[in-house]
């Protein structure tokens, strides 16, 4: 499952980052790495963007970026 498919209010664990190049580096620079836990706070009415909490801070991701993050 990818992060953009996770339900609101759930806590998920990152298993893999599938993006390439600059996109993958940008996601990792935000603190999203394999093994970290992510809490899905909110999703905008049209589904984009997704607001999450990772490593103690709030972060907003585009749905396209969230699709590169595989979670369990």
Task: Describe the model.
With 72 residues, this protein is of the alpha+beta class. The protein has a single domain (3-71), classed as Ferrous iron transport protein A (FeoA) (SH3 type barrels). The protein is 18% helix and 38% strand. The protein has a five-stranded antiparallel β-sheet with strand order 4-3-2-1-5. Strand 2 and strand 3 (50-54) form a beta hairpin. It is globular. This is Ferrous iron transporter FeoA-like domain-containing protein.
Order of strands across the biggest sheet?
4-3-2-1-5
The description of the largest β-sheet is: 5 strands, antiparallel
What are the secondary-structure elements, in order, as H or E? EHEEEHE
| Straight-line distance between termini | 7 Å
Sheet/helix structural class? alpha+beta
The gross shape turns out to be globular
Number of helices: 2
The third-level CATH topology is SH3 type barrels
Q: What is the count of β-strands?
A: 5
Helix content: 10-25%
CATH superfamily: Ferrous iron transport protein A (FeoA)
What's the rounded overall pLDDT mean?
91
Q: What is the rounded Rg? A: 11 Å
CATH class membership: Mainly Beta
The structural domain count equals 1
Tell me the β content: 35-45%
Please give the CATH architecture.
Roll
Low-confidence stretches: none
